[in-house]
Fold this protein.
Amino acid sequence: MKNLEYKNKKLQFSKTDIASVAKNNKTPFYLYSEEILVKNYQDFYQGAVNANLINPLVCFALKSNPNKELVKILAKMGSGADIVSGGELKRAMECGIPAEKIVFSGVGKTEEEILYALKVSKGKLCSFNIESLEELELINSCAKRTKTVARICFRLNPVVKPKTHKYISTGNKTHKFGLLEKDVLSFLKEKKYWSHSKLVGLSIHIGSQLLDLKATKKAIAKMCDIALKTQAPLEFIDVGGGLGVDYHPSETKRMPSIEEYMTLVYKTLHKEFYSKSDLRPRVVFEPGRRIIAKAGILVMRVLRNKISEDNHFVIVDGGMNDFMRPSLYGAYHGVTPVQEAKATTRVHVVGPICETSDCFGSDRPLPALKSGDLVILEDTGAYGYSMGSNYNLRGRPLELLIQKNQKLKTVNKAQDYKELL
């Protein structure tokens, strides 16, 4: 992981000594870097600009990490938001992201959430990304009741199979997400659903942790074809998010660069849409992981060792309730000791939760570790705290931010028992 290096045999993250931070803060805790977060956003946005994409809007996916202080940093840089709930809408707006930069995704928007979004945005929400006819009908009805016009974007299901984990693949017809081409074209003809709604965009989102762009190219081309068939004066085309990061060393060579990704988006849009239409809609992105994953680590302390014949377990104080991805997806995250030393054995790094799946890494080469030693789990900025829980009645961990001036800031205190009741 970049931005991790040893200095005098002590591990530093974003130029900050991790052991020093752990002296004054109880483990486990998340540690984020403002410098890395800012750079990742700037690289993504500037990549779109450099590729000559039209008036790009980067809508950060709040589901990846909705921490207020982190979202405020992104808002100040001009980021929009991709949201999937009323709570995320409130978080985005209270952090300074204007309604016109917010896309409301998700298959299960409630009537309460829709009415709130229409009222609080005064009809200026960038879009409701529609995923069913019943949803379109409900939103149109809510817009009529609130005397507004709902801005509608059809989320398309391009029927592609990206190379990613089945739980985070969203672009095939067997998935609950998106609309098929025939449905989109059919819904547009139903005038009764458009009395207080206006089609302003089309979108796709085919999955998360994408490292192979073949399916992405195919999906964008499909969206362009449907855009031409609708003959609608679209304001934007939303190419979604999901661009992956290199969690495992083997993924580094396969991971698309921002330049490669943006070039593919531009060339596909130019070939499949711009060359066939006078319309020049802006391009919207919905990245989450690519912006925030590498801006965070989880710091844990070793509780004890356990040896069961040829199985050596290192038990740490962080658990699957703090970081779910390895347990849920079998996801790989690097485990690194804070004190530099030569790896001498292969161990299973496990947490204290009463589940066999509470394991951060199996058969990992690590130095001899004893009670009190510190280790970190790499690349945990995305889908870490946001997917956490209070399972086993454990409080949610502390979140700390390394600011640009290298000073530490508490951006979310640790929960105590009273807060769990």
Notes: The longest strand covers residues 296-308. The chain has two domains: 4-33+294-420, 98-285. The CA atoms of residues 133 and 187 lie 7 Å apart. The radius of gyration is 23 Å.
